């Protein structure tokens, strides 16, 4: 602690490159967006002061509240589903199976593919009737006229499946990186003490992994809240606004309908919401995450 | 008992890999299809090796230029962002005072801003810097990354303090400690973050589209999007060929990076 | 120690503030004029001028547009046209918005009439009428009136010129029609639904509905005599009425979905369905043709016909217009006007139709010269015959949000059986009125 205090001047120099970029390209623009939210713009020009009007009209808009509900439904499903699946695969792969590197690479492939290309294939797979999912269901003798992307609720499910497919390889990688930090001696000692795989996982790996788990949860949550490209490519927020998340709503308001001021108000609310949520996550983490002695 | 468990695990992994890779297999096999069989089941399940689509796709856009732009900007962004993030995380972890806590939360906040919501102000800033239609506009805003700092902070925190004290006592110095001890030990994390940063840059679409006006500086995603959505329809086979062309370098790069990651994990895996 | 810490903290804060101020200072600077080229009074500039042209001419259309630009460069060696291609409306919109806010718009851009309404209000678009009437202008009389009018505002000024337009027509699988014993394509709504029912079997629906845009449905709405906008530019209540054209057109489609002769597809999947024989009827613009021809690859003959009629024969026009932005220099504006003049001239139009293979001529006087092309390109030939009955979407400022959000939702919720046509139209009317109050009309 003593040495650390003496290091301050140089310590801040270390921070300078990142901080100046953040300030110039993120924090100042964010403040500007906050300012814009009090102005009405006509197609991006002629700002006129409207106070809180754009906020109140957002709160009165049914679509706005619906988009918040959809954002939560989507995020919870993606965060829980994505985290559970990647934890499962990471545990399996880290258990010393031969060829784990190959599997890890294979699972990672969707993440490196261009979203514009993979979403096109998934759209085709989701086609009602002659898409491959319905074809397979049909071969199994099940209902084969499912409007995967044509009905609001199923479209959200389709979007969730696609998002998890897209990103679980990356979070698996994160979990595996976290697991390599766990000393082998500990798990081996547990095995020697007669703990089975599950006990070993639950009493040794899981607590030691909790920083990674927490990290993956935060990252997944932020990614889910910000999900945009796949919505844009798969459903365009439809059908009947069934997949219009808050981010998509803001995007559409600004860039398809040119309501730039209203979109800024939406962005401010979005930002406050996600800061609050992440704050709560951090508070919980203080109690539940084990950072070592 | 152990054997059956193991083969069950393998079976499960193989099945999952097959399901995961199916859509990608489909893109590659469609890229070798004639139009007639594309996107009909089981049409393109087994590819026909119809190379014509690749010739067509290759002739329709300056893919070489797009690729060079994307790879170049991706590498520069990744390296610079790794550098700034390592420095920032080092300062944040080893000077744990109130101001740094505040700075850390500001950095985390940037992680939560969806970029397109600040796109217009950023456009104004980039314009005033005279960076419209340049590489600078696509690289500089992203050479600091909240996620990377967050991840490095997590890893550095879990790094034993005793090692640091011992190193400093040996007269390594703060700078030397960072580069000679911390960084080599953090290689797995650096690799992971590097891949993440590269892909972030690689997949950027909306911002490059807005700030650039031509293939000389545009990345491959923008080039590819011009194939996907014309106003009237899509030639799926040629699109798939274009997607394959754009993905192959990524896959090859990843296979190399993967080897690096695995090696660095096994060689320098952090020991508690 | 605590004192020192405070000192450092305020130093950091001060430097941050400094940076902020510097940037804020930059932000308030007036943008430097990009080019100054003098103000030539002749049609051909005496000094070299470069103009930027933002457009959505991707894939095969880009080749055709580059051909046009080459032709133009031969005629005007002093003008350089820089074409910037973006994939679609969804990409052009944010790009244009950022550029207009940042005062860096292109010289010339593809523009949809509803956006133009906003750009005109803010003075971002050049009024073309003085240029058209000026010494280097041209006559508007050869143009198709229904293509020209969406570019003309109630003040009588022409702000946009038509460029890449197609008309919705009916594509059908001739082989399947013959097998089902149908000799001619449907001429009325009744025939349309009967034919589709005949062509459908269990789990295979003949009519694949494309709903990327609302224009295919709007064709049917126009056939039922509908118009969503009244002369004042406000929502037309009669169009939404329970026995009005909106409900009639919705009922036709939803009945077909219910009895298994139509299916709602996603994106352009309907083209794939059509090409692999899963469906037999497709409604789309002339622009579909190159894609369909390529996908079908002579597996079966493709038929093209006018859409069926109801109260009247009608179809919808779909595509983009050209507008010049006022931020550019007078020389650039003059050059852009020359380019617009060329693109919509007889020579330019003819070249555009024959090389794009997807778009229609915007003027009436080129059809005679294109006989050999039309003989081998039935989609264009059919489109030209239906052109007199074709309508462009209205250009009121509330139209885009109404069409993409409200109307699209109404159609979809009826087709997925979530809402009845009457209720869907009632709700659409309420929302249309709200939008019109919020966004204004012209």
A few lines on this structure:
Chain A has 293 residues and is mainly alpha-helical. Chain A is built from 13 helices and two strands, in the order ααββααααααααααα.
Keyphrases for this structure?
heterotrimer; A: 293 residues; MetI-like fold; two-stranded antiparallel ribbon; 13 helices; globular; disordered N terminus; B: 272 residues; mainly alpha
Describe this structure in words.
- The complex is a heterotrimer of chains A (293), B (272) and C (442).
- By secondary structure, chain A is mostly helical.
- Helices cover 75% and strands 3% of the residues of chain A.
- Chain A has one domain: Orthogonal Bundle (MetI-like fold).
- Chain A has 13 helices and two strands.
- Chain A has a two-stranded antiparallel sheet with strand order 1-2.
- In chain A, helix 2 packs across helix 13.
- Chain A is globular, with a radius of gyration of 23 Å.
- Chain A starts with a helix and ends in a 5-residue tail after the last helix.
- Mean pLDDT of chain A is 83; it is low at 1-5.
- With 272 residues, chain B is mostly helical.
- Chain B has 13 helices and no strands.
- Chain C has helices at residues 2-28, 60-75, 89-101, 113-121, 129-133, 145-148, 174-179, 189-199, 215-223, 237-240, 245-258, 269-275, 288-296, 330-343, 346-356, 371-376, 378-386, 399-415, 421-439; strands spanning 49-55, 79-85, 108-111, 161-173, 207-209, 262-264, 281-285, 302-305, 315-324, 390-391.
- Chain C contains 19 helices and ten strands.
- With 442 residues, chain C is an alpha/beta fold.
- Chains A and B meet through helix 1, helix 2, helix 4, helix 5 and helix 6 of A and helix 1, helix 3, helix 4, helix 5 and helix 7 of B.
Strand order of the largest sheet of chain A: 1-2
Distance between the termini of chain C: 67 Å
Per DSSP E runs of 2 or more residues, the count of β-strands of chain A stands at 2
State the CATH topology of the largest domain in chain C. D-Maltodextrin-Binding Protein, domain 2
Average pLDDT, all residues of chain A: 83
The secondary-structure class of chain C comes to: alpha/beta
What's the number of domains of chain A? Answer: 1
The biggest beta sheet of chain C, please?
Answer: 10 strands, mixed
């Amino acid at each position: 602690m003593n040495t650390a205090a003496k290091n301050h001047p140089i310590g801040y120099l270390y921070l300078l490159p990142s901080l100046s970029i953040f300030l110039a390209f993120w924090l100042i623009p964010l403040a500007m967006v906050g300012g814009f939210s009090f102005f009405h713009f006509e197609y991006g020009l002629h700002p006129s002061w409207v106070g809180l009007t754009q906020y109140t009209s957002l709160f009165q808009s049914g679509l706005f509240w619906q988009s918040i509900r959809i954002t939560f439904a989507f995020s919870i499903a993606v965060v829980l589903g994505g985290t559970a699946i990647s934890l499962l695969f990471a545990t399996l792969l880290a258990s010393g199976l031969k060829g784990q590197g190959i599997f890890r690479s294979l699972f990672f492939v969707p993440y490196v593919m261009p979203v514009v290309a993979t979403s096109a294939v998934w759209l085709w797979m989701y086609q009602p009737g002659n898409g491959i999912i319905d074809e397979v269901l049909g071969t199994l003798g099940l209902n084969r006229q499912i409007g995967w992307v044509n009905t609001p609720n199923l479209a959200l499910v389709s979007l969730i499946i696609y998002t998890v497919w897209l990103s679980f390889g990356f979070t698996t990688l994160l979990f595996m990186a976290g697991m390599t930090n766990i000393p082998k001696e500990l798990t081996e000692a547990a095995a020697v003490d007669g703990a089975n795989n599950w006990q070993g996982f639950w009493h040794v790996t899981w607590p030691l992994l909790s920083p990674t788990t927490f990290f993956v949860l935060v990252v997944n949550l932020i990614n889910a809240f910000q999900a945009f490209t796949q919505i844009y490519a798969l459903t365009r927020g439809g059908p009947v606004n069934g997949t219009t998340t808050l981010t998509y709503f803001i995007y559409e308001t600004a860039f398809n309908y040119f309501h730039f001021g209203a979109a800024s108000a939406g962005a401010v609310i979005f930002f406050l919401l996600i800061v609050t949520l992440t704050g709560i996550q951090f508070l919980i983490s203080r109690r539940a995450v084990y950072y070592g002695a | 008992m152990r054997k059956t468990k193991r083969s069950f695990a393998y079976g499960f992994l193989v099945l999952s890999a097959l399901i995961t890779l199916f859509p990608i297999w489909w893109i590659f096999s469609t890229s070798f299809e004639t139009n007639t069989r594309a996107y009909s089941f089981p049409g393109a399940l087994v590819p026909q090796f119809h190379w014509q689509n690749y010739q067509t796709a290759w002739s329709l856009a300056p893919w070489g230029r797009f690729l060079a732009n994307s790879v170049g900007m991706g590498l520069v962004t990744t390296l610079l962002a790794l550098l700034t993030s390592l420095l920032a995380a080092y300062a944040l972890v080893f000077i744990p005072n109130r101001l740094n806590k505040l700075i850390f939360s500001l950095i985390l906040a940037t992680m939560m801003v969806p970029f397109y919501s600040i796109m217009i102000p950023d456009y104004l800033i980039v314009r005033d810097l005279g960076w419209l239609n340049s590489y600078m506009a696509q690289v500089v805003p992203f050479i600091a990354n909240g996620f990377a700092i967050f991840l490095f902070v997590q890893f550095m925190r879990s790094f034993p303090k005793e090692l640091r004290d011992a190193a400093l006592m040996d007269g390594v110095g703060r700078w030397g400690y960072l580069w000679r001890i911390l960084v080599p030990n953090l290689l797995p994390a650096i690799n992971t973050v590097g891949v993440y940063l590269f892909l972030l840059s690689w997949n950027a679409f909306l911002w490059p589209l807005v700030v650039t006006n031509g293939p000389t500086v545009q990345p491959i995603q923008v080039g590819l999007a011009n194939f996907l959505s014309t106003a009237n329809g899509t030639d799926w086979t040629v699109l798939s060929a274009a997607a394959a062309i754009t993905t192959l370098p990524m896959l090859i790069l990843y296979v190399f990076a993967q080897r690096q990651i695995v090696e660095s994990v096994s060689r320098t895996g952090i020991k508690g | 120690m605590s004192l020192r810490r405070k000192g450092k903290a305020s130093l950091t804060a001060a430097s941050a503030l400094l940076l902020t101020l510097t940037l804020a200072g930059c932000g308030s600077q007036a943008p430097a004029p990009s080019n100054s080229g003098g103000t030539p009074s002749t049609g051909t500039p005496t000094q070299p001028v470069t103009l930027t042209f933002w457009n959505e001419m991707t894939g095969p259309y880009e080749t055709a547009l580059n051909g046009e630009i080459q032709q133009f460069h031969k005629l005007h060696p002093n003008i350089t046209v820089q074409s910037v291609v973006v994939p679609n409306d969804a990409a052009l919109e944010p790009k244009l918005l950022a550029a207009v806010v940042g005062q860096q718009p292109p010289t010339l851009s593809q523009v949809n009439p509803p956006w133009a309404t906003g750009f005109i209000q803010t003075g971002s678009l050049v009024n073309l009428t003085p240029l058209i009437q000026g010494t280097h202008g041209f006559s508007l009389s050869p143009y198709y009136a229904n293509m020209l009018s969406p570019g003309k505002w109630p003040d009588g000024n022409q702000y946009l010129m038509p460029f890449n337009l197609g008309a919705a027509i009916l594509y059908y699988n001739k082989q399947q029609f013959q097998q089902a014993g149908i000799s001619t394509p449907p001429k009325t709504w009744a025939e349309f639904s009967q034919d589709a029912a005949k062509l459908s079997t269990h789990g295979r629906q003949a009519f694949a509905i494309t709903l990327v845009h609302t224009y295919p449905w709007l064709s049917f709405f126009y056939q039922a005599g509908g118009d969503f906008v009244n002369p004042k530019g406000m929502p037309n209540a009669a169009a939404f009425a329970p026995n009005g054209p909106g409900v009639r057109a919705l009922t036709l489609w939803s009945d077909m979905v219910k009895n298994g002769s139509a299916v709602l597809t996603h994106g352009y999947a309907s083209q794939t369905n059509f090409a692999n024989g899963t469906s037999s009827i497709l409604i789309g613009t002339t622009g579909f043709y190159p894609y369909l021809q390529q996908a079908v690859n002579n597996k079966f003959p493709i038929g093209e016909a006018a859409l069926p009629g109801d109260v009247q024969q009608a179809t919808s026009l779909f595509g983009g217009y050209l507008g010049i932005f006022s931020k550019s220099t007078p020389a650039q504006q003059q050059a852009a006007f020359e380019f617009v003049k060329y693109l919509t001239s007889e020579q330019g139009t003819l070249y555009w139709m024959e090389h794009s293979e997807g778009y229609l001529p915007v003027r009436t006087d080129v059809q005679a010269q294109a006989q050999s092309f039309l003989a081998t390109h039935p989609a264009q030939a059919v489109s030209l015959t239906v052109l007199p009955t074709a309508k462009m979407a209205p250009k009121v400022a509330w139209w885009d949000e109404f069409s993409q959000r409200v109307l699209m939702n109404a159609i979809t919720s009826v087709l997925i059986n979530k809402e009845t046509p009457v209720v869907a139209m009632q709700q659409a009317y309420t929302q249309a009125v709200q939008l019109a109050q919020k966004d204004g009309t012209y």
